[in-house]
Amino acid sequence: MFDLEGEAAPTTEQLGRLVGLLARLDDDVDDAERVEQIRAWQELQAAAAAAQAQVTAAFAVSQRAAQEAAGVPAKDVGKGIASQVGLAKRESPFHAARYVGWATILTTELPQTFAALQRGEVTQWRAMIVARETGWLSAEHRGIVDAELAGRLERLGDRRTEAEAKKVAYRLDPHGAVARARGAAADRRVTVRPAPDTMTWLTGSLPVSQGVAAYASLKAHADSLIAGGDRRNRGQIMADTMVERLTGQASADAVPATVDLVMTDRTLFNRRTTHHRTTGPAGEPADEPAHLDGYGPIPADLARRLLTDTPADTAVWLRRLYTDPDTGALVAMDSRCRRFDHGLRQFLVIRDQTCRTQWCDAPVRHADHPIPAAEGGPTSASNGQGLCEACNYAKQAQAWHARPGPGGAGQQVVTTTPTGHTYTSRPPDPPGRVVTTRPAARAPTAPVDDTHSPMEDALRRLVDK
Fold first, then answer.
1. What are the residues facing 22 on neighbouring strands?
2. Model pTM score
3. Handedness of CA 338, 339, 341, 346 (dihedral sign)
4. What does the pLDDT look like over 90-118, one tens digit per residue?
5. CB 221 within 8 A of CB 241
6. Alpha carbons 58 and 106: distance in angstroms, whole number
7. What does the pLDDT look like over 303-335, one tens digit per residue?
């Protein structure tokens, strides 16, 4: 790539200028040069990932030291660190927590893998695979794995890297490998998440013997029905059978449900309207998408069918929620209780849909007071937000503050982290709410003058080459 030997460490301002510089690519090159640039950009990306991992590990050490110096109990030291990293990286606290752990291992106990990443010889994910697959080993054994993989990582793909790291790790600590497998079995669980086209992925993380046995049972049942003349295909029969066995219903379509469905009356009754906020030309049907709690936006026609196209003996409970005709916000609710209970808690869950922390998107588990009840904060929609368990605990860490912002009804919550950075969250717009915004003005790019450093000269040559 380019030689930065002897260069001072780049500042945040210089990194910002680099971001702007990268938009100035020269397209007037041949394909051979484009291939060379693709390789150069890949190496630069890996080197940047190494720098980010190094900064992240140093930040984690510094934050833990600051918490210990402030007298934070040992069991709480480290709380909130991953959440700050997640906000800075614009990703969920869950992914940030894994990243902090892997970055710490990579930069402190896998020196040769880290050096390969700095040189751009391996991808960030491949380096993190080594950290992930050695995280349960002792520091001494991690060093052995690191040494054995040195010089080979550049030639290995993701799966081979994982396999080779596991093979060496198992050889070094077979008893630890067995204990790890037992720990994974203890972490068995079932999750659900949206899939395209109004489908869902219902996933069970199970011990291998149980997962294979469950799949074989569903497949054998499907094969027997197909042999008997059932016109559904194997996948359809297996899916329907799983629903029937899990719910105890005679038919997969006859599952009783409480439907927390947020939709406008126009969508519900397929009414025509001339309201400019919800339709285009006058007289169009108001078919804005509805919101199904636990899934997300669904087409208006599907929402109506959820309420009407069910067997006569199937119970469907519809909880109706209304929006303010002027602001489009869900109508607020209040309580005299200290806790968000019953309808008010459900209101927060449906209004916020997922954890209010930016980029988290985890399911809402806790109903939280931005202004704590102990400080006189009211139990109301305007002082309430839905958070996942991890984010609620993170904001209780030292020097975190959250306060309702302007807008009322919980429309904004401003969170300040220990480093003084602020992040503003707001709930998604409910169905029927159309917000027209002008494109945000881009911050002016810092002028590039003749006082730039040799490092910037090298970057400029790479871009303008």
1. none
2. 0.68
3. positive
4. 999 999 999 999 999 999 999 999 999 99
5. yes
6. 12
7. 777 666 666 665 555 555 555 656 666 655 544
